[in-house]
Amino acid sequence: MRLAPIYLILPVFLLGCSSSHHEFEGKKSEKAVILELEKIIAEKLPKNRSISGAIVKGDKIIWSKAFGISNLKTQSLADTASIYRIGSISKPFTAFLMMLLVQDRVINLDDPVELYFPEIKKLNGYSEATKITFQQLATHTSGLMREPELPNAASGSIEEWESKILEAIPTTSFESKPGEKFSYSNIGYGILGLALSKAAQKPFIELIEKRIFEPLNMNSSYFAVPKEKLSDLSTGIQDSDGKMDVKTPLLEHSGRGYKVPNGGIYSTPNDLAKFMIYNMGTSSNLVSGENLEMMQNEITGIGERNYYGIGFFVNRRDQLTIINHGGAVAGYTANFAFARANKYGIILMRNYSQGEPDIWELPFELLEALNKVKQ
Question: How many domains does the chain divide into?
């Protein structure tokens, strides 16, 4: 599995990897666990790369730190203001927006999307028997293929993303019947974002900014990094066949075509921590507690002890259920994981695509270790 490009693989951020950080074993205090995390990162971080992270406990950020080089050209060090692409961690934001519109009674989860977005009828193979609901798009049970067959669907400026979706729809086919099984679909989430925009009669990006970023004071989260913040943007490094590629990640900053609702956000660990705190149910209400619980329920089975809710993966470990989503795009990888049972959560973000430390499994093992410490 590790031989394929990491940004094309779902299981790396669904199931974690096989490596195990036994260094956490025997750590009996919160401080000892966090110090061990710092040691793992410092020892395994490759040269000229960076990792930034934050740990949440309840409604507070209890640890936030950055390691390594953020900007290759200037050799500036990463800090807690360093900005990274979060890739598919954008999907929980789109799902969260959907639940807000459900609460507003703009849509219902089981509404056919065609009621608000009739262009969906141009899907290859669409029929009366393959009508898709909002919940099916949000739970990856729409039956749609992972990516459209439109050439260059994932290139083009952010201003063009809606037109790219419309172009991509006729090149998108069904791999299974809607509601039949889990099948991860990036184009499905792209369609979801545009359908929500049409239902609310407002631009998708504006909805995310006004309904989520602003209420949660996420002041370092963007779909396009402002010019005055570009100095904080970490250099993305795509590792391919042992070679370091900075051109591909740089090119993608100018736009990724249709991939806005499913992978378009830039952020920092501290900003994502604000979103995490809310999703753990420790902050004031935007989405109701009932709807948050629905998002984090085991709605669709994926594999042994793994499920998908609405916008989140649900991973049953031996003694802890972890809610998470990972993100992997050219030059950037991130993981967002929390356990509502003990109110701990961790965000790790890095500006490279492959290598140690294991960003997929490390947050899971850290949360398990924190679950065992004396409070």
Answer: 2
